[in-house]
Design brief:
The chain is of the alpha/beta class. It has helices at residues 37-41, 48-70, 89-106, 115-126, 166-176, 183-191, 216-232, 238-264, 279-292, 309-321, and strands at residues 7-11, 16-23, 27-35, 79-85, 110-114, 134-139, 144-151, 154-160, 268-272, 295-297. The strands form two sheets. Strands 3-2-1-4-5 form a five-stranded mixed sheet, sandwiched between helices. Strands 8-7-6-9-10 form a five-stranded mixed sheet, with helices on both faces.
Length: 338
């Protein structure tokens, strides 16, 4: 194996059991994901205990598949990386324990990676030429952050959600509309034939100058709309409602991001996280950045949702800095980025 800086990375923060092999920080030799979505769909969301049991069952197989696809063995590796927070504590512990055991058995460095940081670094996997400073809008089921990247490993949170994350709001609205789980893709699909201006919904801009987010009011407005329609026996146009809700969320996300870019003077904007797979958000952000003269980058859809390749990319830069973890590494479910 003539590749340098070969890292096996593991991701088990929620309901995806994933392992990847990354060479030189950006060359994806393998990226294996076992998705538990079919398992949790009947419950309308992720059941933590079930997620942990499936991680235990499938992690060894997923790691073996990644090594086989990459055509490497443990003896070829330079380090083992793992997500250790934030996320579901039981799910995280499975990955952390597995990575620690493999690192100890093989005498390899262990690198703990913040899951949020991993999402940001999905951009560096496909755009390694990115130059600092950078502004990243990270939108997922558990987090909505505006992050200023000053250098590798140096972050400043400019804004964050004060209540529901954007992805969480999508899931809750989709559930209330009877669209199923996961909510983001269901809302996007339903909205495709709807009128985004068909139903008036509030936008929570918060106090002047704030870069924080709030989506609970929008979610509540949709729930109230559904309740009123039900009481009156009215038929709800789900396509219009999904499109109007999606549009309201996107306007806030794009508007706050451009405000932050202007305030910081940053010329390059990144999009990351599971909600970054939303095509309407990608297009709206592309149009807004083009109009304002900003460079705009985002990962391919398969690298937006939880995966281990992004963890391996983030770990690569930690590896170069010599930031290794000890065998005392533990899961931190409520870990912050900065």
């Amino acid at each position: 194996m003539d590749k340098k800086n070969l890292i096996l990375s593991i991701e088990t923060s929620c309901d995806e059991t994933a392992a990847a092999v990354i060479a030189d920080g950006h060359d994806i030799l393998a990226n294996i994901i076992f998705s538990q979505i079919p398992v949790h769909q009947k419950f309308g969301g992720v059941v933590p205990e079930i997620a942990s049991r499936h991680h235990l069952e499938h992690l060894p197989q997923v790691v073996a598949e990644a090594l086989q696809m990459a055509e490497v063995s443990f003896s070829d590796l330079d380090a083992i990386a793992v997500t250790y927070g934030p996320g579901l504590v039981g799910a995280l512990l499975v990955g952390v324990a597995g990575a620690k055991a493999m690192a100890a058995a093989q005498g390899l460095p262990l690198i703990g990676v913040n899951h949020i940081e991993g999402h940001i670094y999905a951009n560096f996997l496909v755009h390694p030429q990115l130059q600092f400073p950078l502004l990243c809008l990270l939108v997922s089921g558990g987090h909505t952050h505006l992050v200023l990247l000053q250098d590798h490993g140096k972050y400043k949170i400019l804004g964050r959600t004060r209540d529901d994350a954007a992805g969480e709001a999508f899931d809750k609205v989709a559930r209330a509309m009877g669209l199923g789980y996961p909510g983001g893709p269901q809302i996007q699909a339903t909205a495709a034939t709807g009128n985004p201006l068909g139903i008036e919904l509030p936008r929570a801009w918060l106090e002047p100058g704030s870069l924080d987010f709030s989506f609970s009011g929008m979610k509540s407005a949709v729930l109230n709309y559904l309740n009123r329609a039900g009481q009156k026996g009215e038929v709800v146009d789900k396509a219009d409602l999904a499109a109007s809700f999606q549009q309201a969320v996107i306007e806030i996300l794009v508007g706050k991001t451009l405000t932050a870019a202007k305030a910081t003077g940053v010329r390059t904007v990144l999009l990351a996280g599971g909600v970054a797979a939303n095509q309407a958000l990608r297009q709206s952000m592309t149009d807004a950045c083009n109009a304002a003269g900003y460079n705009f980058y985002y990962p391919p859809i398969e690298l937006c949702t939880d995966n281990a390749a992004m963890i391996g990319c983030a770990a690569y830069y930690k590896y170069l800095r010599g930031e290794f973890s000890s065998q005392d590494l533990n899961a931190i479910p409520g870990m912050a980025l900065a």
